[in-house]
Specification:
- The protein has helices spanning about 1-15, 25-35, 40-45, 55-65; strands at about 20-25, 50-55.
- With about 70 residues, it is mainly α.
- It has one domain (about 1-65).
- A two-stranded antiparallel ribbon has the order 1-2.
- It is globular and about 25 Å long.
Length: about 70
């Protein structure tokens, strides 16, 4: 799971570069464009609708059972 979360952290670092908050839809689009592994893509897709700061998104994705 650590490898997966390392990939998640790298994805979020890239996605949030220059952005303070992103919507769940923006994160889903960026996850698809980033070619995230299926397990992580499923977690990002499961984010509830709304806007997230990077730390909020990381925590929310980690709490989603994959």
């Amino acid at each position: 799971m650590t490898d997966e979360f390392d990939q998640l952290d790298a994805f979020l670092d890239e996605a949030y570069e220059g952005h303070e908050r992103l919507s769940s839809l923006d994160l889903q689009r960026r996850a698809i464009a980033s070619d995230l592994p299926a397990a992580l893509l499923t977690r990002v897709d499961a984010l509830p609708e709304g806007e997230y700061a990077q730390d909020e998104a990381a925590e929310a994705v980690r709490l989603i059972e994959g």
